[in-house]
Amino acid sequence: MSSSSFLDMLMGRRLSPEEQVKKWRQSLRVQDRELDKQLRGIAQEEAKAKANIKAAAKRKDVTSCKILAKEVARSRRAKERIHVSKAQINSLVMQLQQQLAAAKIAGTLKKSTEVMKIVNRLIKLPEVARTMQEMSMEMTKAGIIGEMMDDAIDALDEEGIEDEAEEEVDKILFELTDGTCGVPQIVFEVLSQCLLPGLLGETGAVGAPLEQEAAEPAAEEKEPEMDAMQARLAALKST
User: Fold this and answer.
1) Dihedral of alpha carbons 164, 169, 172, 173, sign
2) For 179, which DSSP code?
3) What is the DSSP string of 96-158?
4) How far is Cα 202 from Cα 195, in angstroms, rounded to an integer?
5) CA 140 to CA 136: how far, in whole Å?
6) pLDDT band for position 175 (50/70/90)?
7) Where is pLDDT greater, at 17 or 9?
8) What pLDDT band is residue 68 in, cutting at 50, 70 and 90?
9) Which of 46, 120, 150, 172 is the most exposed place for a label (fewest CB within 10 A)?
10) Are 128 and 84 in contact (CB under 8 A)?
11) φ, ψ for residue 84 (rounded to 5)?
């Protein structure tokens, strides 16, 4: 903080719209650089975890593979949150620029629903929550946003997140171990679609054997489905 800004705070001088927006933009740029630093750190840890998964797979240590795969899944979710945060920060900077342009004509910052929406979304993200809470109070005092609504924060479906995490772990294991560990949900879906009807068809609806002539066309119909299953599994490995 510059000496003039510190003196302004002590004297209680109200910042002009230009000064206020400049202060917020500087804070957002600092936060954006911090997010970049976090991304680099997460990427390094993820790379280590991936290498350890491959080593554990060679030892056939499935337990260690699953633990490490959960770390990779957490890293990927954290990176997604950070990228969302950076995009929202850039949107907020642009909105503030528009507010500043309008303030040069009107002489004051106007309340903005769009700014309030972006700030509210940023407050929900752990990586920037503290900074944005402080900024939201300043913006409220400046009149650019209204009071933040506590009930605007969406409740998280913990059970749904847990289920999604388990599927992601399986996919990561399948991806990093060339299919030796982890069976994605898609495998079960394809198997149930392609194989289960065939198994039931061998005995018929009430257990009576089917005629040979009816079984042969059914087998031919399953071949394209099996080819499709193999293609989907190959696509998973290549991702």
Assistant:
1) negative
2) T
3) HHHHHHHHHHHSSPPP-HHHHHHHHHHHTSTTTHHHHHHHHHHHHHHTSS-PPPGGGSPPP-H
4) 11
5) 6
6) confident
7) 17
8) very high
9) 150
10) no
11) -65, -40
The alpha-carbon radius of gyration of the chain (Å, integer) is 28
User: Is the pLDDT assigned to residue 23 strictly greater than 70?
Assistant: yes
Q: What is the DSSP string of 156-174?
A: P-HHHHHHHHHHHHHHHHH
Amino acid identity of residue 113, one-letter, is T
- Token reading at 24: 């917020």
How many whole angstroms separate alpha carbon 69 and alpha carbon 57?
11
Q: How far is residue 188 from each of residues 19, 150, 160, 177, 183, measured CA to CA in Å?
A: 59, 42, 19, 18, 8
pLDDT (mean) for 73-85 = 93
Per-residue model confidence (pLDDT) at position 223? 61
Q: What is the pLDDT, as a whole number, of residue 176?
A: 85
- Give every CB contact of residue 88 below 8 A, 6+ residues apart in sequence: 118, 121, 122, 125
**Looking at this protein, which amino acid is placed at residue 116?**
M
Q: Which residue has the tokens 């240590």?
A: 61
Asked if 97 and 51 count as a contact pair (C-beta separation under 8 A), the reply is no
> pLDDT (tens digit, 9 = 90+) per residue, 185-217?
455 555 556 555 555 554 444 444 444 444 455
Give dist(CA 196, CA 178) in Å, integer: 26
Report the chain's mean pLDDT, rounded to a whole number: 76
Amino acid, single-letter form, for residue 232 = R
Ordered alpha helix ranges (H), 177-211: 185-194, 196-203
